[in-house]
Amino acid sequence: MAxxxxxxxRRVECEVVVERGAVRExxxxxxxxxxxxxxxxxxxxxxxHGGRLRDLLAPVARKIAVxxxxxxxxxxxRATKExxxxxxxxxxxxxxxxxxxxxxxxxxxxxxxxxxxxxxxxAHVNVPTTLTAQVDAGIGGKTGVDTSFxxxxxxxxxxxxxxxxxxxxxxTLPAGERxxxxxEMVKTAVVADEELFSWMEGHTPALAAPNPLDAHAIARxxxxxxxxxxxxxxxxxxxxxxxxxxxxxxxxxxxSSFAIPHxxxxxxxxxxxxxxxxxxxxxxxEHARRVETLISKLGLTPFPRVPFEAVRPFLAxxxxxxxxxxxxxxxxxxxxxxxxxxxxxxxxxxxxRIEEAYARHLR
Length: 363
Ligand code: GLY
Description:
The protein is an alpha/beta fold and 363 residues long. Helices cover 44% and strands 18% of the residues. The protein is built from 13 helices and 13 strands. Strands 1-2-9-6-5-3-4 form a seven-stranded mixed β-sheet, with helices on both faces. A two-stranded antiparallel ribbon has the order 7-8.
């Protein structure tokens, strides 16, 4: 078991519990001043776990609502948020309510954003149910919705009071969803935990399916992410390192109109960005090969073919760009991210450099 306490400068403490069966502890994390619980998740996750959460909260919450919405990224909108808010208002949920965000990235981003603005902000607890959400999206307080102008463009930093990470919840996860999470795990290891990376290299067959080792790997990721977020909660600097693989990855995802799963796109992005790192930040060639090999052994290859011409326009729209230049978070070695001589955590990559690195692997 790992209990990690993430103390943040701007707000309260966030307690993260990582343990098989941790969801059974939900009631022990309940604060005496909370009167009502609103469990929010998509209809699939509510069907799987909503009833159980209601039972777990019944001894501590005076009033409980379980609110579902249609599954899928298409629901992560201002319209769904408004609908959830209206249901909470109609149900008379006051400021002493706690929102229990249940599910993967979409549910947590959406429910967390509802918590950030409902009655000017109420408490929330995250219960992530996908590997991606347990190692990444559920930690760090990013909440938000998509707009027709792009993903995650409206939102807030709103730290959950607690995050309950229960690897047993992963047992119902489809294999493709698990691979998405493994890609985020590789990212976290490259960014901040060389030991985890080596451990993953030694456990690739086991990692393919849910198993008791998950708790160890997830706890390492949570710890690494907490370390980064503690330094830079609102991404004014170091937190940008968590975008390793995502600059190219997001552009690939968008170029495929989201037909390529997030984890596969991020894996493709990490392979290209590791190549960029060999050229720009001195990543040893051998480390780039280790990243490629691990990704392949985790079942994230063969990669689909996406021509660079389709990807290029989306790179130009990346949120990290400055003065028209694409900026990428790059490792100096596995477990250590590189800074520019001026101390910045992202590096300028010219379109030509990106195309060269892309051409080497992806077409
Ligand atoms: N998923 C990246 C971050 O939380 O900053």
